[in-house]
Amino acid sequence: MTLPRRAHPRPLDIAAGRIDLSHGGGGRAMAQLVDELFVAAFDNPALNQRNDQGAFEVPGGRMVMTTDGYVISPLFFPGGDIGSLAVHGTVNDVAMAGAVPLNLSAGFIIEEGFPLADLKRIVDSMARAAKEAGVPVVTGDTKVVEKGKGDGLFITTAGIGLVPPGVSISGDRARPGDAILVSGSLGDHGVAVMSKREGLEFDTTLVSDSAALHGLVAAMVAAVPDLHVLRDPTRGGLAATLNEIAAQSGVGMLLHETAIPVKPEVRGACELLGLDPLYVANEGKLICICDGADAGLVLAAMRAHPLGRDAALIGHCRTDAHAFVQMETALGGQRVVDWLAGEQLPRIC
Amino acid sequence: MKYIDEYRDAALARSLAAAIAAEADPARTYHFMEFCGGHTHAISRYGLEDLLPAGVRMIHGPGCPVCVLPVGRIDAALWLARQEGVTLCTYGDMLRVPGSKRVSLLKAKAEGCDVRMVYSTADALKLAQALPERQVVFFAIGFETTTPPTAVALKQAQALGLANFSVFCNHVLTPSAIAQILDSPEVRQLGTVRLDGFIGPAHVSTVIGSAPYEYFAEEYRKPVVIAGFEPLDVLQAIRMLVRQVNDGRFAVENEFARAVTRDGNTKAKALVAEVFELRKTFEWRGLGLVPYSALRIKEAYAAFDAERRWAVPQDSVADNKACDCGAILRGVKKPTDCKLFGTVCTPENPMGSCMVSAEGACAAHWTYGRFRTAGGSNDG
């Protein structure tokens, strides 16, 4: 991968540095940790693609594999819980290669003292989500850590899937002229979760958008097999995800602020908290980048699916040596839509 | 969204921009400083520079509370966080600012210090009540907007007899900083920085009112227009400033009349006067020592003053020599004039204060505007 400029001006301080929360925020600090430590150490062609799943050839076709850890707080939130999220998130990471998800694994790290009733509620929800998605949990692992050594419950799921012939979706395939589509309104999940966070509780009718997207992806691939990029904008939101893709593909992007769907409730909560909806997490939305000429067909396929009803064309890719993600603001000015620096913390005034 | 969308209307913005272009004299340039980081952020986030004629230039002022806090005070907060039994809490933006050894409160937290983010002083008080075995220190920063809530917290702590709560006070005063800029040699004698007027603070002015700016308008013969933080507020204020300059007037005008009165919030001002007193001098990052520019906790509330409870270090720590934050905060230089900008100093690894908060001039230019100065072109 060649980045348009040196992405990380200062290398990781391995000798004296420590992990802080920004290394998990989905922004540039996390990208640096992944690049300079994990990818450098595990160095192999599938990983070096830097997608949310690794793809490799097996006898009979092309397979993808992915894994994801779930550490969400609180464990239960409007519209879901850590269990359903652990199924949806991993199914989605498989689906973002255009693959058909086949099986899941689930690892549980449980803190001593965790109520069994909560665990059952979470496992039942997980089972329900897996059944609805048609992707069974075929193996698992259970560990218990001493009280104080874990925050209630962490879940790790892995998933595998098969890529249909003729489909080649990857974050490095965006080209100038390609259309950028989103499957619906942004920021619902992050705001719904924040509304229940300790010290921040506020009332909202919003629920998380947490959902398995492989059905939507199948419908899109059926309409246009040659989709270039699919990715779900989870941590770091739309902004981080588009910057990842722009860097991977070496293209710039121009978005139109007025075309980006954001619910009024999400905008309102973000105003109040000093957040930008473009950086807020989603768990049931995808970004699709396809040839500009295919955009109409893909959009129609998305809108015909219940999880893509509010799909929208939000911008285009273009030639840009700096791989800037730029936006024409609602007022007609221009600005960069940058990575998030660290976690998105509320501004104070 | 009601009461928000009205102030972000694209058609109105275009007509205001057209009015500014029509009224601005093409034979001259206009240099206006927006004091507040909130205005800097609005200008960058909405791309307002693209709507202004070439002759109207905005200079980003020092009104970002996180940015003006000197390194020594951040080191002092880190020192407090490392004291046995201390839980240090503060507003979110403060957590990322690096101290002298590139350690931020976020990094201190990773090292094992108990550092918490709070959304309000009420949360800080609640924390002290919930953790009776800990000493909860609220790291208080900000201009006149955040000062009254700190005053309320101190009064409540006293009423509750909360022995484990204290405040590390770093509240600063807007008018003193404006005076310091206007008195700086670059503005007053050398004429290297032209300042034709100010966009006055929004939220700060809801507390202090518009009266304190009358002195600047009269003494320094500079127009001041107090403006809200929405993009249409900023454009309207620029239009009002252009008119004042064209007319040769220098008055305090209030664009933010929906929230700001001449006297401000008298209740809040009384609260602040009851709990705080002026410091003789206080160090500002970028501006140096500014006389009577900050507040300290009055003797009556000494029991809740972290600086009296602990021997908090009072060292002044110099900024990185190559860092131009000082000149940038005074409007003498632009972010891109600094050698560190975008090379070793980025929002992830801020060297100077202006890169720390999204309201700082450097962070705003890096995050939202760097395509303007990146060189090269795109095929749009």
Summarize this, please?
The complex is a heterodimer of chains A (about 350) and B (about 375). Chain A is an alpha+beta fold and about 350 residues long.
Could you explain how this protein is built, in words?
The complex is a heterodimer of chains A (349) and B (380). Chain A is an alpha+beta fold and 349 residues long. Chain A is built from nine helices and 14 strands. The longest helix of chain A has 18 residues, at 116-133. The radius of gyration of chain A is 20 Å and the shape is globular. Chain B has 380 residues and is α/β, with parallel strands linked by helices. Chain B has two domains: 5-64 and 175-254, 3-Layer(aba) Sandwich (Rossmann fold); 67-173 and 264-309, Rossmann fold, CATH 3.40.50. In chain B, the strands form four sheets. Chain B has a five-stranded parallel β-sheet with strand order 2-1-7-8-9, sandwiched between helices. The radius of gyration of chain B is 21 Å and the shape is globular. Classes of the chains: A alpha+beta (349), B alpha/beta (380). The interface between A and B is large, with 46 and 62 residues.
> What is the mean pLDDT of chain B?
92
Q: Kindly identify the CATH topology of the largest domain in chain B.
A: Rossmann fold
Report, as a whole number of angstroms, the end-to-end distance of chain B.
Answer: 31 Å
Question: Beta-strand percentage of chain A?
Answer: 15-25%
Low confidence ranges of chain A: 1-6
User: At the fourth CATH level, what is the homologous superfamily of the largest domain in chain A?
Assistant: PurM-like C-terminal domain
Please tell me the CATH architecture of the largest domain in chain A by its name: Alpha-Beta Complex
CATH architecture of the largest domain in chain B: 3-Layer(aba) Sandwich
Reading off the top of the CATH hierarchy, the class of the largest domain in chain A is best stated as Alpha Beta
Task: List how many beta strands of chain A DSSP finds.
Answer: 14
H and E string of chain A = HHEEEEHEHEEEHHEHEHEHEEE
How many distinct helices of chain A? 9
Major beta sheet of chain A, specifics? 7 strands, mixed
Distance between the termini of chain A: 40 Å
